[in-house]
Amino acid sequence: MLKLDSLVHFTIPVKDLDRSEAFYTGILGLERLRRNSQMVFMRAPDGNHFVLTFSETPVEPNVGDKHEIHTAFGVSADEYDRAKGYLAGKRVRIFKEEDRRTGTFRGRSAYFHDPDRNVIEIIDLEQSDGKDHD
């Protein structure tokens, strides 16, 4: 097997770079590092990176409000409560909430769509020890 050191970045497919950059910086508060004609390079507060990449094919990772394919960002307990109200004020619909007490990622989570219907999860992991309990 390979002996990987880290996750360097992941890619989120989008159809409109301007619209997606505005959402991820303006709504989610993430940092734009740089941009070219096909990609916007982003950084989360913990230093992890991801790339918004223009997709020439339709972006349809999930049907309807399914959420199996998603990207999760951690938030504090206080921010989780504030974020739900903030998202509602920006007309971002939270379509599912969970409060998981078992499993790998325990805590409260809310799921919503980005402008291309990619599913974003915010999760309050403060109650989790990061171990799989299933």
Describe this structure in words.
Helices cover 18% and strands 36% of the residues. It has 134 residues and is of the alpha/beta class. The strands form two sheets. A four-stranded mixed β-sheet has the order 1-4-3-2, with helices on one face. A four-stranded mixed β-sheet has the order 5-8-7-6. The model has no long low-confidence stretch (mean pLDDT 91).
What topology, given as strand order, has the largest sheet? 1-4-3-2
Instruction: Tell the overall outline.
Output: globular
Main sheet record: 4 strands, mixed
Share of residues in helices? 10-25%
Give the averaged pLDDT, no decimals.
91
Rg (CA only): 15 Å
Query: What name is given to the CATH topology of the largest domain?
Result: 2,3-Dihydroxybiphenyl 1,2-Dioxygenase, domain 1
Number of helices, counting only DSSP H or I runs of 4 residues or more: 2
Low-confidence parts lasting 5 or more residues at pLDDT below 50? Answer: none
Overall number of strands: 8
What's the CATH architecture name of the largest domain? Roll
Please identify which CATH superfamily of the largest domain we are dealing with.
Answer: 2,3-Dihydroxybiphenyl 1,2-Dioxygenase, domain 1
In terms of DSSP E residues, the strand content is 35-45%
Q: What's the CATH C level of the largest domain? A: Alpha Beta
